[in-house]
Amino acid sequence: MSSRSKKLLKVIDGIRSWNISASQVNSHGSSPDIVELLKSDHFQVGKIAIHGFPYHPTCMAFDPVQKIIALGTKAGIIRIFGRPGVDYVVSHPSSSAVIQIVFLVNEVMFF
């Protein structure tokens, strides 16, 4: 065996012995035991954010006064876009498609 191979084996053995001794120190109680109080019942999966263009858009309206665009979808959802930071999602009780959006003075009406 060459001297380089012997040196490499010594390095690997040193790493193994260091790793084994480090795991034995942690298993003998040098670190405090952590009691897990959290359970899966404490968490609930939910939608955090909506990204991208609405799925199955059916209609669109633009209000030049407020400078906002509203997009209606086949699932009954309306997404309103405006300047940066203005992005709202609303829906009506039924999941019927939104077929028309009309902006009124300071109001929005959808059919």
Automatic annotation (TrEMBL):
SUPFAM superfamilies given in the database record:
NHL repeat
Q: Which organism is it from?
A: Paragonimus westermani
Q: What is this protein called?
A: Syntaxin-binding protein 5
User: Which residues, by range, are in coiled-coil regions?
Assistant: none
This entry carries the following GO cellular component terms, namely: plasma membrane; SNARE complex
An example GO biological process term is: Golgi to plasma membrane transport
An example Gene Ontology molecular-function term: syntaxin binding
What is the annotated signal peptide range for this record? none
